[in-house]
Amino acid sequence: DFFSSGHLRHRVKEPKESGLRDIVYAINSMAAELQKQMGTIRNQKNELATIFESLSDGLLAVDSDGKVIDVNQTLTEWLGANPKQVKGKPVYELTRYPDIQRLIYKVIEDEKPVEKSIVLHGMEIRHLEVRSNLLQSEGQVIGAIFSFRDTTRLQQLEHLRTDFVANVSHELKTPITSIIGYAETLKESAL
């Protein structure tokens, strides 16, 4: 009863009868090995959870019905959601942005990964690059995982670069036009 309820540290006392000693030893060895494996699994789970939460990209995992399996803090902050309240809920409870909802349901329905740029219009405009991949088990699609990268700053820098090039181009055209005009005047007067 101890082992079945998860108390793997408990050991069966060695019986006085020699015929049962081998069985008790095998049970105790299995319990020790299970305890070790469960510890390893627990450590790996904690490591993955730490990595999942520390990423600067938003991450979302959904099942084949479009219900949230897991979502990291980064994405819930961008979407204004509470991560503890959306697990197990449909995607539309995580986000009210129709572009994100359509993308998620399309990936699940078509069973094909996609890459897409999405702009969120809220308190501030946020540009996101979204990549998806299918979650599979034994050849069956069981859901999808989505990575959301915030490219807002990159978009702003690109816009600044474009404006700068346009301004420099305009500023250079004005004096060059004058220089060309003077050069033509000098050329004509020399003849």
H and E string: HEEHHHEEEH
Query: Which word captures the global form?
Result: elongated
Chain-averaged pLDDT: 84
User: Which structural class do the helices and strands define?
Assistant: alpha+beta
Percent of residues in helices:
40-55%
Strand content: 15-25%
Cα distance, first to last residue? 113 Å
Arrangement of strands in the largest sheet: 2-1-5-4-3
Number of strands: 5
Note poorly predicted spans. none
Radius of gyration based on Cα positions: 31 Å
Structure annotation, total helices: 5
Query: What is the makeup of the main sheet?
Result: 5 strands, antiparallel
Folded structure, characterized:
- This protein is of the alpha+beta class and 191 residues long.
- It has 5 helices and 5 strands; from the N terminus they run H-E-E-H-H-H-E-E-E-H.
- The protein has helices spanning 18-54, 73-79, 83-86, 98-110, 152-190, and strands at residues 58-63, 68-71, 115-121, 125-137, 140-150.
- Strand 3 and strand 4 form a beta hairpin.
- The longest helix has 39 residues, at 152-190.
- The mean pLDDT is 84.
Descriptive keywords:
52% helix; alpha+beta; five-stranded antiparallel sheet; 5 helices; 191 residues
In short, what is this structure?
With 191 residues, this protein is an alpha+beta fold. 52% of the residues lie in helices and 21% in strands. It starts with 17 loop residues before the first helix and ends with a helix.
SSE topology:
Elements: H1 18-54, E1 58-63, E2 68-71, H2 73-79, H3 83-86, H4 98-110, E3 115-121, E4 125-137, E5 140-150, H5 152-190
